[in-house]
Design goal:
This protein has about 450 residues and is α+β, with helices and mostly antiparallel strands. The protein contains twelve helices and 22 strands.
Length: about 450
Protein backbone atom coordinates (compact mmCIF):
# COMPACT_ATOMS: atom_id res chain seq x y z
CA UNK A 1 0.00 0.00 0.00
CA UNK A 2 1.39 3.39 -0.98
CA UNK A 3 1.82 6.10 1.63
CA UNK A 4 -0.72 8.38 -0.04
CA UNK A 5 -3.49 5.80 -0.33
CA UNK A 6 -2.82 4.67 3.25
CA UNK A 7 -3.43 8.22 4.49
CA UNK A 8 -6.55 8.53 2.34
CA UNK A 9 -7.96 5.30 3.75
CA UNK A 10 -7.14 6.36 7.30
CA UNK A 11 -8.94 9.67 6.77
CA UNK A 12 -11.96 7.77 5.46
CA UNK A 13 -12.16 5.54 8.53
CA UNK A 14 -9.64 2.71 8.18
CA UNK A 15 -7.99 1.82 11.50
CA UNK A 16 -4.36 1.65 10.38
CA UNK A 17 -2.36 4.77 11.26
CA UNK A 18 -0.12 6.13 8.49
CA UNK A 19 3.56 5.32 9.03
CA UNK A 20 5.29 6.16 5.76
CA UNK A 21 6.42 9.77 5.40
CA UNK A 22 7.58 9.37 1.80
CA UNK A 23 4.91 11.14 -0.23
CA UNK A 24 4.34 14.36 -2.13
CA UNK A 25 2.23 16.79 -0.08
CA UNK A 26 0.73 18.47 -3.13
CA UNK A 27 -0.33 15.18 -4.71
CA UNK A 28 -1.86 13.98 -1.46
CA UNK A 29 -3.83 17.20 -0.97
CA UNK A 30 -5.08 16.99 -4.55
CA UNK A 31 -6.35 13.47 -3.88
CA UNK A 32 -7.89 14.55 -0.56
CA UNK A 33 -9.94 16.97 -2.64
CA UNK A 34 -10.88 14.37 -5.23
CA UNK A 35 -11.98 11.95 -2.52
CA UNK A 36 -13.80 14.78 -0.67
CA UNK A 37 -12.03 13.96 2.60
CA UNK A 38 -10.92 17.37 3.86
CA UNK A 39 -13.31 17.41 6.83
CA UNK A 40 -12.64 13.83 7.79
CA UNK A 41 -8.88 14.32 7.57
CA UNK A 42 -9.08 17.51 9.64
CA UNK A 43 -10.89 15.51 12.31
CA UNK A 44 -8.35 12.63 12.16
CA UNK A 45 -5.15 14.68 12.28
CA UNK A 46 -5.10 15.33 16.07
CA UNK A 47 -4.96 11.57 16.64
CA UNK A 48 -2.33 10.96 13.99
CA UNK A 49 1.47 11.21 14.02
CA UNK A 50 3.01 14.59 14.76
CA UNK A 51 4.87 14.73 11.45
CA UNK A 52 1.58 14.39 9.57
CA UNK A 53 -0.03 17.20 11.59
CA UNK A 54 2.96 19.40 10.92
CA UNK A 55 2.94 18.80 7.18
CA UNK A 56 -0.79 18.81 6.49
CA UNK A 57 -2.48 20.62 9.37
CA UNK A 58 -2.60 24.11 7.88
CA UNK A 59 -3.49 23.14 4.31
CA UNK A 60 -6.21 20.72 5.42
CA UNK A 61 -7.83 23.29 7.72
CA UNK A 62 -7.85 25.77 4.85
CA UNK A 63 -9.24 23.15 2.46
CA UNK A 64 -12.10 22.26 4.78
CA UNK A 65 -12.85 25.93 5.45
CA UNK A 66 -13.27 26.32 1.70
CA UNK A 67 -15.57 23.29 1.68
CA UNK A 68 -17.72 24.82 4.41
CA UNK A 69 -17.94 28.10 2.50
CA UNK A 70 -18.99 26.23 -0.65
CA UNK A 71 -21.53 24.23 1.35
CA UNK A 72 -23.09 27.48 2.54
CA UNK A 73 -23.17 28.72 -1.06
CA UNK A 74 -24.87 25.49 -2.13
CA UNK A 75 -27.49 25.82 0.58
CA UNK A 76 -28.21 29.41 -0.43
CA UNK A 77 -28.44 28.38 -4.10
CA UNK A 78 -30.92 25.59 -3.36
CA UNK A 79 -32.87 27.88 -1.06
CA UNK A 80 -33.28 30.43 -3.85
CA UNK A 81 -34.39 27.72 -6.26
CA UNK A 82 -36.99 26.34 -3.84
CA UNK A 83 -38.32 29.84 -3.15
CA UNK A 84 -38.55 30.58 -6.87
CA UNK A 85 -40.48 27.34 -7.49
CA UNK A 86 -43.22 28.58 -5.18
CA UNK A 87 -45.93 25.95 -4.77
CA UNK A 88 -44.08 23.35 -6.84
CA UNK A 89 -42.77 20.33 -4.87
CA UNK A 90 -39.22 21.12 -3.78
CA UNK A 91 -36.48 19.02 -5.38
CA UNK A 92 -34.55 16.52 -3.26
CA UNK A 93 -30.79 16.97 -2.95
CA UNK A 94 -28.72 13.79 -3.08
CA UNK A 95 -24.96 13.18 -2.70
CA UNK A 96 -22.76 16.21 -2.07
CA UNK A 97 -23.73 17.96 1.16
CA UNK A 98 -26.64 15.56 1.83
CA UNK A 99 -24.88 13.31 4.38
CA UNK A 100 -23.44 16.27 6.29
CA UNK A 101 -26.87 17.93 6.47
CA UNK A 102 -28.62 14.73 7.46
CA UNK A 103 -26.17 13.94 10.27
CA UNK A 104 -25.57 17.54 11.32
CA UNK A 105 -21.81 16.85 11.23
CA UNK A 106 -19.95 19.59 9.36
CA UNK A 107 -16.89 17.38 8.98
CA UNK A 108 -18.94 15.17 6.66
CA UNK A 109 -19.90 18.01 4.33
CA UNK A 110 -18.49 17.65 0.83
CA UNK A 111 -19.19 19.74 -2.22
CA UNK A 112 -19.01 18.94 -5.88
CA UNK A 113 -21.99 19.80 -8.00
CA UNK A 114 -25.56 20.03 -6.69
CA UNK A 115 -27.61 16.99 -7.69
CA UNK A 116 -31.34 17.69 -7.56
CA UNK A 117 -34.07 15.14 -8.24
CA UNK A 118 -37.27 16.87 -9.27
CA UNK A 119 -40.93 15.92 -9.38
CA UNK A 120 -41.40 17.76 -12.68
CA UNK A 121 -38.39 18.88 -14.69
CA UNK A 122 -40.27 21.56 -16.63
CA UNK A 123 -40.77 24.16 -13.88
CA UNK A 124 -37.25 23.67 -12.51
CA UNK A 125 -35.59 23.99 -15.92
CA UNK A 126 -37.64 27.11 -16.61
CA UNK A 127 -36.73 28.58 -13.22
CA UNK A 128 -32.95 28.15 -13.39
CA UNK A 129 -32.35 30.60 -16.31
CA UNK A 130 -34.46 33.20 -14.52
CA UNK A 131 -32.07 32.88 -11.58
CA UNK A 132 -29.07 33.48 -13.83
CA UNK A 133 -28.05 29.88 -14.57
CA UNK A 134 -26.89 28.94 -18.04
CA UNK A 135 -27.28 25.48 -19.50
CA UNK A 136 -23.83 23.90 -19.75
CA UNK A 137 -24.79 20.32 -20.69
CA UNK A 138 -27.61 18.87 -22.72
CA UNK A 139 -30.05 16.24 -21.42
CA UNK A 140 -28.65 12.71 -21.27
CA UNK A 141 -30.54 9.66 -20.04
CA UNK A 142 -31.89 10.48 -16.55
CA UNK A 143 -30.07 13.84 -16.43
CA UNK A 144 -32.30 16.65 -17.65
CA UNK A 145 -29.36 19.01 -17.94
CA UNK A 146 -26.54 20.82 -16.19
CA UNK A 147 -26.87 24.50 -15.30
CA UNK A 148 -24.07 26.73 -13.99
CA UNK A 149 -23.95 30.14 -12.33
CA UNK A 150 -20.90 31.77 -10.68
CA UNK A 151 -19.13 28.46 -10.18
CA UNK A 152 -22.20 26.68 -8.79
CA UNK A 153 -23.20 23.68 -10.93
CA UNK A 154 -26.72 22.26 -10.74
CA UNK A 155 -27.42 18.80 -12.19
CA UNK A 156 -31.14 18.23 -12.67
CA UNK A 157 -32.26 14.59 -12.54
CA UNK A 158 -35.60 13.10 -13.55
CA UNK A 159 -34.71 10.10 -11.37
CA UNK A 160 -31.67 8.29 -9.99
CA UNK A 161 -30.60 5.01 -11.59
CA UNK A 162 -29.91 1.89 -9.55
CA UNK A 163 -27.77 -0.31 -11.83
CA UNK A 164 -27.43 -4.06 -11.58
CA UNK A 165 -25.87 -6.85 -13.60
CA UNK A 166 -29.26 -8.03 -14.83
CA UNK A 167 -28.73 -10.55 -17.62
CA UNK A 168 -24.92 -10.37 -17.41
CA UNK A 169 -23.68 -13.87 -16.67
CA UNK A 170 -20.26 -15.00 -15.48
CA UNK A 171 -20.37 -17.85 -17.97
CA UNK A 172 -20.51 -15.33 -20.82
CA UNK A 173 -17.35 -13.52 -19.73
CA UNK A 174 -14.69 -16.10 -20.53
CA UNK A 175 -13.28 -15.60 -24.04
CA UNK A 176 -12.82 -18.76 -26.12
CA UNK A 177 -9.28 -20.07 -26.37
CA UNK A 178 -7.36 -19.55 -29.62
CA UNK A 179 -10.29 -17.82 -31.35
CA UNK A 180 -9.54 -14.63 -33.25
CA UNK A 181 -12.95 -13.20 -32.39
CA UNK A 182 -14.95 -13.54 -29.20
CA UNK A 183 -18.65 -13.45 -30.09
CA UNK A 184 -20.04 -12.23 -26.81
CA UNK A 185 -23.76 -12.66 -26.14
CA UNK A 186 -25.43 -9.31 -25.77
CA UNK A 187 -26.44 -9.01 -22.14
CA UNK A 188 -28.17 -5.85 -20.99
CA UNK A 189 -27.67 -4.74 -17.38
CA UNK A 190 -30.68 -3.93 -15.23
CA UNK A 191 -31.55 -0.39 -14.24
CA UNK A 192 -34.18 0.56 -11.67
CA UNK A 193 -35.22 4.13 -10.97
CA UNK A 194 -35.54 6.08 -7.74
CA UNK A 195 -38.04 8.80 -8.51
CA UNK A 196 -38.72 12.02 -6.65
CA UNK A 197 -41.90 10.46 -5.32
CA UNK A 198 -39.99 7.47 -3.96
CA UNK A 199 -37.46 9.78 -2.27
CA UNK A 200 -40.16 11.72 -0.45
CA UNK A 201 -42.56 8.84 0.29
CA UNK A 202 -40.26 7.47 2.96
CA UNK A 203 -39.89 10.80 4.68
CA UNK A 204 -37.23 13.41 4.08
CA UNK A 205 -35.26 15.81 6.23
CA UNK A 206 -35.26 19.52 5.48
CA UNK A 207 -32.43 21.78 6.64
CA UNK A 208 -33.37 25.36 5.92
CA UNK A 209 -34.92 24.95 2.49
CA UNK A 210 -32.76 21.97 1.47
CA UNK A 211 -34.55 18.61 1.37
CA UNK A 212 -32.48 15.41 1.59
CA UNK A 213 -33.54 11.71 1.66
CA UNK A 214 -33.77 9.60 4.78
CA UNK A 215 -30.56 7.64 5.63
CA UNK A 216 -31.83 4.35 4.15
CA UNK A 217 -32.55 5.77 0.70
CA UNK A 218 -29.47 7.98 0.74
CA UNK A 219 -27.31 4.94 1.49
CA UNK A 220 -28.78 3.12 -1.52
CA UNK A 221 -28.24 6.18 -3.72
CA UNK A 222 -24.57 6.29 -2.71
CA UNK A 223 -24.12 2.53 -3.26
CA UNK A 224 -25.71 2.80 -6.69
CA UNK A 225 -23.64 5.81 -7.71
CA UNK A 226 -20.36 4.28 -6.53
CA UNK A 227 -21.17 0.93 -8.18
CA UNK A 228 -21.95 2.63 -11.49
CA UNK A 229 -18.66 4.52 -11.41
CA UNK A 230 -16.77 1.27 -10.74
CA UNK A 231 -18.41 -0.83 -13.44
CA UNK A 232 -18.24 1.85 -16.13
CA UNK A 233 -14.79 1.63 -17.70
CA UNK A 234 -15.45 4.09 -20.50
CA UNK A 235 -13.09 7.03 -20.17
CA UNK A 236 -15.70 9.34 -21.70
CA UNK A 237 -15.98 11.88 -18.94
CA UNK A 238 -12.28 12.68 -19.42
CA UNK A 239 -11.94 14.03 -15.93
CA UNK A 240 -9.18 13.17 -13.52
CA UNK A 241 -11.11 11.31 -10.86
CA UNK A 242 -10.74 7.96 -9.10
CA UNK A 243 -13.06 5.04 -9.79
CA UNK A 244 -13.93 4.85 -6.09
CA UNK A 245 -14.53 8.02 -4.08
CA UNK A 246 -13.69 7.19 -0.47
CA UNK A 247 -16.09 9.79 0.93
CA UNK A 248 -19.00 7.82 -0.53
CA UNK A 249 -17.90 4.66 1.27
CA UNK A 250 -17.24 6.62 4.48
CA UNK A 251 -20.72 8.17 4.21
CA UNK A 252 -22.23 4.68 4.31
CA UNK A 253 -20.66 4.10 7.73
CA UNK A 254 -22.13 7.38 8.99
CA UNK A 255 -25.60 6.74 7.53
CA UNK A 256 -25.90 3.25 9.03
CA UNK A 257 -25.10 4.73 12.45
CA UNK A 258 -27.77 7.44 12.07
CA UNK A 259 -30.59 7.17 14.60
CA UNK A 260 -33.16 7.08 11.80
CA UNK A 261 -31.51 4.23 9.92
CA UNK A 262 -33.91 1.29 9.92
CA UNK A 263 -32.35 -2.04 8.92
CA UNK A 264 -35.64 -3.62 7.91
CA UNK A 265 -36.62 -0.62 5.80
CA UNK A 266 -33.18 -0.64 4.17
CA UNK A 267 -33.47 -4.34 3.27
CA UNK A 268 -36.99 -3.81 1.90
CA UNK A 269 -35.75 -0.95 -0.28
CA UNK A 270 -32.81 -3.01 -1.54
CA UNK A 271 -35.26 -5.74 -2.60
CA UNK A 272 -37.78 -3.29 -4.09
CA UNK A 273 -35.12 -1.46 -6.14
CA UNK A 274 -33.14 -4.62 -6.95
CA UNK A 275 -30.08 -2.91 -5.50
CA UNK A 276 -28.40 -6.15 -4.38
CA UNK A 277 -25.50 -5.91 -6.83
CA UNK A 278 -24.74 -2.30 -5.89
CA UNK A 279 -25.03 -2.90 -2.15
CA UNK A 280 -22.95 -6.09 -2.19
CA UNK A 281 -20.28 -4.35 -4.26
CA UNK A 282 -20.25 -1.41 -1.80
CA UNK A 283 -19.83 -3.86 1.07
CA UNK A 284 -16.88 -5.46 -0.73
CA UNK A 285 -15.27 -2.10 -1.53
CA UNK A 286 -15.70 -0.88 2.04
CA UNK A 287 -14.24 -4.11 3.42
CA UNK A 288 -11.24 -4.04 1.08
CA UNK A 289 -10.48 -0.33 1.36
CA UNK A 290 -11.68 0.59 4.85
CA UNK A 291 -11.54 -2.74 6.68
CA UNK A 292 -15.24 -3.23 7.42
CA UNK A 293 -18.60 -3.62 5.73
CA UNK A 294 -21.09 -1.32 7.51
CA UNK A 295 -24.14 -2.51 5.57
CA UNK A 296 -26.60 -5.14 6.85
CA UNK A 297 -26.06 -7.18 3.67
CA UNK A 298 -23.15 -9.63 3.22
CA UNK A 299 -20.38 -8.17 1.10
CA UNK A 300 -19.90 -9.51 -2.39
CA UNK A 301 -16.85 -11.60 -3.16
CA UNK A 302 -16.18 -10.75 -6.80
CA UNK A 303 -14.78 -10.80 -9.34
CA UNK A 304 -17.10 -8.04 -10.43
CA UNK A 305 -17.76 -7.69 -14.17
CA UNK A 306 -17.13 -4.27 -15.65
CA UNK A 307 -18.58 -2.62 -18.74
CA UNK A 308 -16.02 -1.83 -21.43
CA UNK A 309 -18.34 -0.08 -23.88
CA UNK A 310 -21.96 -0.44 -24.90
CA UNK A 311 -22.86 -3.95 -23.75
CA UNK A 312 -19.32 -5.31 -23.83
CA UNK A 313 -18.54 -6.86 -20.43
CA UNK A 314 -15.35 -8.40 -19.06
CA UNK A 315 -13.71 -9.36 -15.78
CA UNK A 316 -10.35 -7.58 -15.83
CA UNK A 317 -8.18 -7.85 -12.73
CA UNK A 318 -8.79 -5.19 -10.08
CA UNK A 319 -5.83 -3.35 -8.58
CA UNK A 320 -7.26 -2.05 -5.32
CA UNK A 321 -4.63 0.68 -5.12
CA UNK A 322 -5.44 1.98 -8.58
CA UNK A 323 -9.12 2.32 -7.71
CA UNK A 324 -8.18 5.31 -5.55
CA UNK A 325 -6.02 7.07 -8.13
CA UNK A 326 -7.21 9.21 -11.06
CA UNK A 327 -5.53 7.00 -13.66
CA UNK A 328 -8.69 5.23 -14.88
CA UNK A 329 -7.46 1.88 -16.15
CA UNK A 330 -4.42 0.26 -17.70
CA UNK A 331 -5.31 -0.95 -21.19
CA UNK A 332 -2.41 -3.42 -21.10
CA UNK A 333 -3.91 -5.06 -18.00
CA UNK A 334 -7.39 -5.24 -19.53
CA UNK A 335 -6.43 -6.77 -22.89
CA UNK A 336 -5.58 -10.27 -21.51
CA UNK A 337 -9.15 -10.51 -20.19
CA UNK A 338 -10.51 -9.93 -23.70
CA UNK A 339 -8.71 -12.64 -25.62
CA UNK A 340 -8.57 -10.35 -28.66
CA UNK A 341 -11.34 -8.88 -30.79
CA UNK A 342 -14.87 -8.87 -29.29
CA UNK A 343 -18.02 -8.74 -31.39
CA UNK A 344 -21.46 -8.46 -29.87
CA UNK A 345 -23.70 -11.29 -31.02
CA UNK A 346 -26.63 -9.12 -32.11
CA UNK A 347 -27.66 -11.28 -35.07
CA UNK A 348 -26.10 -8.85 -37.52
CA UNK A 349 -22.41 -9.28 -38.42
CA UNK A 350 -20.14 -6.34 -37.74
CA UNK A 351 -19.38 -4.31 -40.87
CA UNK A 352 -16.00 -4.63 -42.57
CA UNK A 353 -13.89 -1.91 -41.01
CA UNK A 354 -10.21 -1.34 -40.44
CA UNK A 355 -8.15 0.41 -37.80
CA UNK A 356 -4.64 1.71 -38.25
CA UNK A 357 -2.57 3.12 -35.39
CA UNK A 358 0.59 5.02 -36.27
CA UNK A 359 3.09 6.87 -34.09
CA UNK A 360 5.26 9.77 -35.16
CA UNK A 361 7.21 11.31 -32.28
CA UNK A 362 4.77 12.01 -29.47
CA UNK A 363 1.79 12.03 -31.84
CA UNK A 364 -0.41 8.96 -32.28
CA UNK A 365 -2.81 8.83 -35.23
CA UNK A 366 -5.77 6.43 -35.21
CA UNK A 367 -7.53 5.97 -38.55
CA UNK A 368 -10.76 3.97 -38.74
CA UNK A 369 -11.91 2.87 -42.19
CA UNK A 370 -15.67 2.40 -42.53
CA UNK A 371 -17.53 0.42 -45.21
CA UNK A 372 -18.40 2.42 -48.29
CA UNK A 373 -22.12 1.77 -47.80
CA UNK A 374 -24.28 1.10 -44.77
CA UNK A 375 -27.98 1.08 -43.97
CA UNK A 376 -27.26 2.19 -40.40
CA UNK A 377 -28.59 5.61 -39.46
CA UNK A 378 -25.64 6.30 -37.18
CA UNK A 379 -22.10 4.97 -36.83
CA UNK A 380 -20.21 5.46 -33.59
CA UNK A 381 -16.65 4.83 -32.60
CA UNK A 382 -14.49 4.66 -29.56
CA UNK A 383 -10.77 5.22 -29.09
CA UNK A 384 -9.61 4.59 -25.53
CA UNK A 385 -6.09 4.86 -24.11
CA UNK A 386 -7.35 4.05 -20.61
CA UNK A 387 -6.69 7.46 -19.09
CA UNK A 388 -8.15 9.37 -22.04
CA UNK A 389 -10.02 8.76 -25.23
CA UNK A 390 -12.72 9.81 -27.66
CA UNK A 391 -16.20 8.84 -28.71
CA UNK A 392 -17.17 9.98 -32.19
CA UNK A 393 -20.52 9.91 -34.03
CA UNK A 394 -21.08 9.92 -37.79
CA UNK A 395 -24.64 10.61 -38.84
CA UNK A 396 -26.00 12.13 -42.06
CA UNK A 397 -22.45 12.69 -43.25
CA UNK A 398 -21.66 14.88 -40.24
CA UNK A 399 -18.93 13.90 -37.78
CA UNK A 400 -18.90 15.00 -34.15
CA UNK A 401 -16.69 13.89 -31.27
CA UNK A 402 -16.07 14.37 -27.56
CA UNK A 403 -12.81 13.56 -25.84
CA UNK A 404 -9.16 14.42 -25.55
CA UNK A 405 -8.16 14.21 -29.21
CA UNK A 406 -6.23 17.03 -30.85
CA UNK A 407 -8.13 16.59 -34.11
CA UNK A 408 -10.96 14.42 -35.41
CA UNK A 409 -11.81 14.59 -39.10
CA UNK A 410 -13.70 12.70 -41.79
CA UNK A 411 -11.47 11.90 -44.76
CA UNK A 412 -12.34 10.73 -48.25
CA UNK A 413 -13.23 7.08 -48.52
CA UNK A 414 -15.23 7.27 -45.24
CA UNK A 415 -12.21 7.24 -42.99
CA UNK A 416 -12.27 8.81 -39.52
CA UNK A 417 -8.86 10.09 -38.44
CA UNK A 418 -8.03 11.13 -34.88
CA UNK A 419 -4.75 12.54 -33.59
CA UNK A 420 -3.47 12.51 -30.01
CA UNK A 421 -0.45 13.58 -28.01
CA UNK A 422 0.61 10.44 -26.17
CA UNK A 423 3.95 10.24 -24.33
CA UNK A 424 6.01 7.06 -24.35
CA UNK A 425 7.52 4.79 -26.95
CA UNK A 426 4.63 2.37 -27.38
CA UNK A 427 1.40 1.17 -25.93
CA UNK A 428 -2.07 -0.20 -26.36
CA UNK A 429 -5.40 1.33 -27.25
CA UNK A 430 -8.94 -0.03 -27.50
CA UNK A 431 -10.77 0.86 -30.71
CA UNK A 432 -14.41 0.11 -31.40
CA UNK A 433 -17.15 0.74 -33.95
CA UNK A 434 -20.91 0.34 -33.60
CA UNK A 435 -23.98 0.85 -35.78
CA UNK A 436 -27.42 2.12 -34.74
CA UNK A 437 -30.76 2.33 -36.49
CA UNK A 438 -32.90 5.47 -36.64
CA UNK A 439 -34.43 4.74 -33.22
CA UNK A 440 -30.99 4.48 -31.62
CA UNK A 441 -31.10 0.69 -31.23
CA UNK A 442 -27.74 -1.04 -31.51
CA UNK A 443 -27.36 -3.08 -34.71
CA UNK A 444 -23.79 -4.29 -34.34
CA UNK A 445 -20.66 -3.50 -32.38
CA UNK A 446 -17.05 -4.62 -32.29
CA UNK A 447 -14.17 -3.73 -29.97
CA UNK A 448 -10.54 -4.71 -30.37
CA UNK A 449 -7.11 -3.85 -28.98
CA UNK A 450 -4.50 -2.21 -31.16
CA UNK A 451 -0.83 -1.51 -30.42
CA UNK A 452 1.95 0.67 -31.73
CA UNK A 453 5.70 0.56 -31.38
CA UNK A 454 6.94 2.77 -34.17
CA UNK A 455 5.75 4.83 -37.11
CA UNK A 456 4.48 1.64 -38.77
CA UNK A 457 0.75 0.93 -38.71
CA UNK A 458 -0.46 -1.68 -36.31
CA UNK A 459 -3.95 -2.84 -35.53
CA UNK A 460 -6.71 -5.11 -36.65
CA UNK A 461 -10.23 -5.40 -37.81
Amino acid sequence: MGAITQILRWAAGADTLPENEDFDDGLLLDLVGQHALSGRLERCLPGGPEWLRRRLGGPVVAMHADTLARAEAHMRAVGRIVAALGEQPPPVLVKGIATGLLTGDKHLLRCGDIDLVCADGGPLIETLPRLGYKRTRAPFLHELGEFTRAGVEIDVHAYLPVPGYGAVRDADLTPPEHARTWYQPRRAPSMHAISHGRLVDGGTVTVGRVTVPDPCLLAIVLCAHAFLNFTNMWSLSHRAKPYVKLAELADLHALVQHEAFDTQRFLALVAELDAWDAVRWAGWASTVLLGRNPLPVPAGTGPFPRCLWWDFWARPPVDEESLLLPDWFDVAAVIPALGGRIELDTGRPAPPWTVEVRRDGDQVTVTVGLPQRTDAATERGRVDFGASGTEWILSGGELSAVGCHDTCELLSGRRVRLRYRVPGAGGEVLVGVAEQDASGALLSAVLCPATWRSADPEGGR
